[in-house]
Design a protein that fits this description.
Length: 196
């Protein structure tokens, strides 16, 4: 069979890169740059800024989100939004190598050696499972607990996605409302004439 030396199997478990979604970041920067250029070429940027409209758009969207979801989940959404661009992505092959390494170390030194390796694991989910192995839980219980953890993570992410989708739906609506209110105020000022 295949054997592994301690040197060949030495890796930092994390093996994961801060794989920022470069394409999304480039797209956002490019989009805002083009919009800024278009606005700037049309005159003074101040004419495009209306504090009242911004309050209606952003404040209204935030208020609607707070009325739709628990406040704790709303603030957690910002963390999820950041993860979209800085999520730690690991290839399945890297995880498989970690598991092979841990199995090898466990075979060589038992749970005591596995416990030493536990502190070097950067993957929280993998570390959760190894901790239960070290604690001596039976395989069926470990599997059930890890499946429960997977379901919990899935539910949290699903809720975060719902909040972000709701934000994307409410934002344009309040933006349109701000535009209509601005037009009404503009027409009112025009009708009143320069003398008021």
């Amino acid at each position: 069979g295949r054997t592994f030396s301690s040197n060949s199997m030495k890796h930092n478990y994390s093996g994961k890169k801060k794989a920022s979604d470069l394409a999304s970041i480039i797209g956002i920067i490019t989009g805002f740059t083009l919009i800024f250029y278009a606005l700037r070429s049309g005159g003074d940027l101040k004419i495009f800024w209306d504090p009242a409209a911004a309050m209606i758009t952003f404040g209204g969207t935030f208020a609607a989100i707070c009325m739709s979801y628990p406040i704790g989940l709303v603030f957690r959404m910002f963390g999820l939004a950041i993860k979209v661009f800085s999520e730690q992505i690991r290839h399945p092959e890297e995880i498989a190598k970690d598991l092979v390494h841990l199995a090898y170390m466990s075979k060589q030194g038992g749970f005591l050696e596995l416990e030493k390796q536990e502190n070097q694991i950067g993957d929280k989910f993998l570390k959760y499972g190894i901790t239960m192995v070290v604690d001596g839980l039976d395989p069926l219980t470990i599997r059930e607990l890890m499946e429960t953890e997977i379901e919990s993570i899935r539910e949290r992410h699903t809720m975060g996605q719902k909040i972000l989708r709701s934000t994307a739906a409410y934002g344009p609506s309040f933006g349109l409302l701000a535009t209509i209110i601005g037009l009404i105020q503009l027409l009112s000022n025009l009708q009143s004439g320069p003398e008021g």
